[in-house]
Amino acid sequence: MDNTRLSGRLPFLLASLGLLFGAAVHLFAYRAGPAGMAWLGAPPSVVTSRAAGSWPALIGTLIPVAALAGLAILCWIPARTRVRRIALGALAFLFVLRGLLVLPYWAGLRDLRTPFGHFVLLGDAFVPGSLVVLAIGLMVAGGLLGTRPPDLTSSRADPSGRPTR
To answer: Is residue 37 very low, low, confident or very high in pLDDT (cuts 50, 70, 90)?
Structure first.
């Protein structure tokens, strides 16, 4: 399982750059102050914490930044093992699901109550952020498809089931 072919590597590299961009946006929002964090969609308690200069806002920024940077590294390094490919598949699945939250937002649903919890969709950056997250998820999925093992993507397969030479 080698993902060194350019057609498979390019989506991973683009996803990695997108993840690093997301980390930078989180840092810039923190630096911009409470208004920047509210624009990004931070919960009101984090925005209040940023206005007060207390540590929850800093922690609430550094955790996503570290997670996004770690995921960028995961995408940048070629995935040659099954465990890495499964991790990347889980990343793609979660990012596609998160990106698709833009659909209820566009439908006017901003306060979602689910069996998993209560989600409030906030911030002026929610739609562009969701589309970037969706694009990252689709790029990782495309990279996984483009780097499948050759036996899964062989064009020499005979539909009759007879072995080919």
So the answer is: very high
